[in-house]
Amino acid sequence: MPIDEGLRSELSKSGIFTTTLESIYNWGRKNSVWPLQFGLACCAIEMIATSMARYDLARFGAEVFRPSPRQADLMIVAGTVTKKMAPQVVRLYNQMPEPKYVIAMGACAISGGPFKQGYNVLKGIDRYIPVDVHIPGCPPRPEALLHAFITLQQKIDAQTMRGPNRARHFDPDEPSEFPVPEFGEKDLVPSKNLSVWKPPVILREA
Amino acid sequence: MLPAIDQLKARIESAVPAAKVEIHPNDTPAAQPSLIINREALFEVAHFLRDDPELKFDYASNVTGVDWLDLVTKEKMKVKKVVDGVEKEVEETIEKKRAGYLEVVYHLFSMSLKHGPIILRVRTGNRTDDSNIPSVTPIWRGAEFQEREIYDLYGVKFEGHPDLRRILMWDGYTEHPMRKDYVEPDDYEYEPTPHDDVLAKTKCHWPSMEGTTGR
Asked: Looking at chain A, which residue has its C-alpha nearest residue B195?
């Protein structure tokens, strides 16, 4: 049960700090998110710039880019996901331990971008894995990635450990791994995972 | 100094007796003519171009493919005919058919003599079972990946290539996506402002849009 705000401030005036397990757990997680170190295209250059001195992602506790998915909490899909690369991206996601988050960075990662109508590019990584934050832009500026990261921190902060809306990794019914698509004769099989992604419903005026 | 294109043609033909060389003119402002080589003689011609001391084309800058579909052209011709016992000139349209083929284009430069490019074109017999062309990878090592890409995207089979596999698409993929008759998988989802081919696809998936401009 959350503690009453008035009581909390009264207690803090007399030097007693109160908190909940949930808030201290989320506070710890959101300020130490370790991204997976991989880039797919030009967006990766902006991601690298974000992590360097000028934009300094370390201010938000996310400077530890891990070269192994087993040590990472966050997957930044930075760039075009070709159909040949998509199974590897899904496999990397499956190898990350829970809790794990995904930022789809740039027009290609969220929708296929300028290659959407082509034959070799996935029309968005959210066809196969759940995406927490989408960033538009081609490529997005480092400020946009920082904004996405702050949005993700707010999302982590709002997650609960119990209840019907509890975080995904506390729900035993929610899958932690997703099927890796296979190379077919003409396209990936399946071409999308409909349990993760729903086609947009388009309402047009008559 | 690079010799003129007709001199080049003569030198190739005298050095490689099996070569049939045809000058392909270029009417565009670039005015860059090219040489059509018969594919049986390509390997010897390439060897000659690389090793001749006055040519020394030691660098295959670019190897690429072109897909030429079957083409039907109509021409109007004046034909003399006997109409009602009187000889007259009558205009007739004659249909000309040209079978399709695949073409490989080579851009060659000389690094040591600082000249180039010359452009070679080599054509296959047809677009299906007779699509072999000798590989020039043993002559210019840099052609290896470009020939793999042409094999992947156009389906030209290079004889003598050391490692002819797909390079961009995956093994097990059966199509050649840069061919003009390639049909991509029907995975249309949604396009906010469709136009041209995409609009036609949109109308297939959203029949209520028939007769609209797509908005």
From this structure: A117
Contacts of A134 (CB under 8 A, 6+ apart): A103, A104, A110, A126
> Which two tokens mark B61?
């800058």
CA atoms within 13 Å, Cβ hemisphere of B16: 22
| B190 with A202: Cβ contact below 8 A | yes
Is the interface score ipTM higher than 0.95?
no
DSSP state at residue A2: P
Please tell me if residue B189 touches chain A, with a CB cutoff of 8 Å.
yes
Strands B34-37, B21-24: parallel, antiparallel or unpaired by DSSP?
Answer: antiparallel
Contacts of B168 in chain A (CB under 8 A): 84, 120
**Helices B5-15 + B42-51 axis angle, to 10:** 110
Instruction: Report whether the peptide linkage leading into residue A99 is cis, meaning its omega lies within 30 degrees of zero.
Output: yes
Global confidence as pTM = 0.83
For A180, which DSSP code? P
Q: Tell whether omega for the bond before A190 is within 30 degrees of 0, i.e. cis.
A: yes
Query: Which chain B residue is nearest to residue A191, measuring alpha carbons?
Result: B187
pLDDT in tens, chain B (215 residues): 788 888 999 999 999 999 899 999 989 998 889 999 999 999 999 999 999 999 899 999 999 999 999 888 888 877 777 777 787 777 888 888 888 999 999 999 999 999 878 999 999 988 888 899 999 999 999 999 999 999 999 999 999 999 999 999 999 899 899 999 888 887 777 777 778 888 888 788 776 655 555 44
Instruction: For residue A188, give the nearest of A121, A118, A91, A105 by alpha carbon.
Output: A121
Q: How far is CA A82 from CA A43, A170, A180, in A?
A: 14, 32, 14
Give the pLDDT of residue B215. 46
Cis check: omega of the bond before A139, within 30 degrees of 0: yes
Looking at the complex, does the CB of residue B173 fall below 8 Å from at least one CB of chain A?
yes
Which chain A residue lies closest to B205 (C-alpha atoms)? A202
Distance CA A130, CA B168 (A): 27
Peptide bond just before B33 cis, omega within 30 deg: no
- Backbone dihedral angles phi then psi of residue B4, each to the nearest 5 degrees: -65, 160
